[in-house]
Amino acid sequence: MKILLILAWRNLWRNKKRTLITISSVLFAVLLATLFVSMEKGSYERLIDSMVKYSTGYIQIQDILYDEEPSIDHTLLFDEEIEEILNKYEEQIAYHVPRLQNFVLVATENNTRGSILNGIDPELEIKMNDLNEDVVKGEFLKPNDNGLMLAEGLAGILNVTVGDTLVLLGQGFHGSTAAGTYPIRGIVDLKIPDINNNTIYMSLSEAQWFYGTDNRVTSLIIMPENPARTQQLAESLRKVIDPEWHRVLTWEELLEDLLNLMKFDVAGTMVMMMILYIVIAFGLFGTILTMLIERRKEFALLFSLGMKRAQVAIVCFFEALFISMAGVILGIIISIPVVAWFYHHPIPLSGDMAEAIADYGFEPVLPFSADPTIFINQALIVLIISFLIGLFPVYKVFRINIMEAKK
């Protein structure tokens, strides 16, 4: 076997130019595929990270009925039982963020608009998403504050600013009426238009008093110490929490629609990737086919001298495998520093595209992912392609007619 491997390697360099061109085609195909997948995965990772920080968190504990029917009547009682469960897993939980969210009608002297009122713990909210850095006027809420913080878009619609007073009217717990007047403490730019035009923040204690929910919240967000172990932590919580009253949801379940949309987008990306893989396959196949045609007489002579067909087939198979492996290895070696550079220095965008991305609260750049599986997957796919193509010369060697080949 050692001699056959040496023969296969030496045969590749009998035509150096053809071998180098084939290796280069595999190299650049692997490099392009790796960069393309890294850029797409990086964009998805940044999108998910933003949604997790500003919206759902990694894990939520809710009332069993809240996800199907979001209502103030289906709130979660944040009592000693829940606190004991959190304390039990305090080594795995970085912190938790309680929220009370419900619809409210907000009015000024001349304007009225329906909005979403978010009761938050200011200190924990800052820890989760640095919301205080987005304040453009006034100041961020303080614990037990009896004022409001308004999204910038909603403040513009209502034509109000810091120091003005708003009237809030809504439905409280168990059909009670929730009403009150509150001063505006600050205005925050939430970037995403739909959220920026409909959001009000209030301290959690004040929101609980406003809705009459006592110590209830619509959701208890849990941020794990290790986000990679989100599923394991969620499963542990499900085992100890009462399933008749409470429900534990992960960010995948809470963002199911977004993830389905991303899967649809991935399907389109796979079409582009298939084109690259086809380029690799035809490049290898063309090289192997040319080598077989040129060496038909050589094979016939080797058979006449007593070399077995199986041995010649093994040599041809490893020739195809060596070419692809050389291209894959060089492609991965080159792509690692390139991806690492773009991971630490994302490509900046400009013009209308940059403005559109910035309007939705994201940095106007093309982010890249440095996930090791990207490199491993590309190497495996190309090696599988080369393995399948390497079976073709094996088939042809066993089918060669010695007399016809000699002519």
From TrEMBL:
<feature type="domain" description="ABC3 transporter permease C-terminal">
    <location>
        <begin position="271"/>
        <end position="402"/>
    </location>
</feature>
<keyword id="KW-0449">Lipoprotein</keyword>
<dbReference type="InterPro" id="IPR003838">
    <property type="entry name" value="ABC3_permease_C"/>
</dbReference>
<dbReference type="InterPro" id="IPR051447">
    <property type="entry name" value="Lipoprotein-release_system"/>
</dbReference>
<dbReference type="GO" id="GO:0044874">
    <property type="term" value="P:lipoprotein localization to outer membrane"/>
</dbReference>
<comment type="similarity">
    <text>Belongs to the ABC-4 integral membrane protein family. LolC/E subfamily.</text>
</comment>
<protein>
    <submittedName>
        <fullName>ABC-type transport system, involved in lipoprotein release, permease component</fullName>
    </submittedName>
</protein>
<keyword id="KW-0472">Membrane</keyword>
<keyword id="KW-0812">Transmembrane</keyword>
<dbReference type="GO" id="GO:0098797">
    <property type="term" value="C:plasma membrane protein complex"/>
</dbReference>
<feature type="domain" description="MacB-like periplasmic core">
    <location>
        <begin position="19"/>
        <end position="239"/>
    </location>
</feature>
<keyword id="KW-1003">Cell membrane</keyword>
<feature type="transmembrane region" description="Helical">
    <location>
        <begin position="374"/>
        <end position="398"/>
    </location>
</feature>
<feature type="transmembrane region" description="Helical">
    <location>
        <begin position="20"/>
        <end position="39"/>
    </location>
</feature>
<dbReference type="Pfam" id="PF12704">
    <property type="entry name" value="MacB_PCD"/>
</dbReference>
<feature type="transmembrane region" description="Helical">
    <location>
        <begin position="270"/>
        <end position="293"/>
    </location>
</feature>
<dbReference type="InterPro" id="IPR025857">
    <property type="entry name" value="MacB_PCD"/>
</dbReference>
<dbReference type="Pfam" id="PF02687">
    <property type="entry name" value="FtsX"/>
</dbReference>
<feature type="transmembrane region" description="Helical">
    <location>
        <begin position="314"/>
        <end position="343"/>
    </location>
</feature>
<keyword id="KW-1133">Transmembrane helix</keyword>
